[in-house]
Design goal:
It contains 9 helices and 9 strands. The protein has helices spanning about 10-20, 35-40, 60-70, 85-90, 110-120, 135-145, 175-185, 200-210, 225-240; strands at about 30-35, 50-55, 80-85, 100-105, 125-130, 150-160, 170-175, 195-200, 215-220.
Length: about 240
């Protein structure tokens, strides 16, 4: 699993391992590195100019408030927060008094959130994103003529791996950056019988664009989560290999 090990001992991943007697390793193919405030200043963005902020991840929340603290910027109580999901919105409680703020969220993706944002077109939006980031978010905001500024507050970089660290039957990716890291760390990797799973359409697209075979994708009509998708995949696999 190319993501951090869950803290919750009742995580579905541990249940899955127990059910099928699996060995699951959690190894992030990428790591997040915060951009120093002095580098952020070079982007010539005045955070006090904005009346609303769009958060696409918990990481974006962490680095926005980190930069504000480093630059001694007080976020006004009137700030409006637009979060990609309810889960991301709840994470704001780490930094603000949640019930006293104007917080809005989408259901699952940015397309859901844009419908909410359109109702607040009078706002001046700040969007903290990583370097690199996908172009779909800026494009969608521009398409709907939303006044916004993109700011880079953190970067996604590939982790270095030992060449012996890829002896798996199934590798699960959760971002296109993970696929990029695979190519950088293992340039001679041949997929062969190794199964590759991807979460989300952009990750799935990255798998095939790099010339790999996509064996499993989530969410799908039968499985909204990766653990459910793997569960269904293993049931089918075991049925066909009895």
């Amino acid at each position: 699993m190319s993501q951090p090990e869950p803290n919750n001992p009742k995580s579905p991943y541990f249940e899955l391992a127990k059910k099928y007697n699996l060995k699951i390793d959690f190894k992030q193919f990428i790591q997040i590195e915060g951009i120093p405030s002095k580098d952020f200043r070079q982007q010539k963005i005045n955070l006090a100019d904005f009346t609303a902020i769009i958060f696409t991840s918990k990481t974006a929340i962490d680095h926005y408030f980190r930069i504000c603290e480093e630059m001694r910027i007080t976020v006004p109580d009137t700030m409006k927060y637009f979060c990609i999901t309810e889960n991301v919105a709840f994470y704001l409680q780490k930094y603000i008094v949640y019930r006293k703020r104007k917080i809005f969220h989408g259901k699952a993706n940015f397309e859901d959130l844009i419908d909410v944002i359109i109702k607040h077109k009078e706002e001046n939006f700040f969007v903290p994103l990583s370097d690199p980031h996908k172009s779909d978010i800026p494009e969608l905001l521009a398409k709907h003529k939303i006044r916004h500024t993109i700011g880079t507050m953190y970067r996604t970089i590939s982790r270095d791996f030992d060449s012996k660290e890829l002896d798996y039957d199934l590798i699960v990716f959760f971002s296109p950056s993970g696929i990029k890291s695979l190519k950088e760390n293992f340039p001679t990797f041949v997929q062969g019988e190794v199964k590759i799973a991807a979460f989300g359409p952009t990750t799935a697209e990255a798998v095939t664009n790099e010339g790999f075979r996509l064996d499993l994708q989530a969410p799908n009509p039968k499985a909204p989560s990766m653990t459910m998708a793997i569960d269904n995949f293993l049931k089918e696999f075991n049925k066909n290999h009895k």
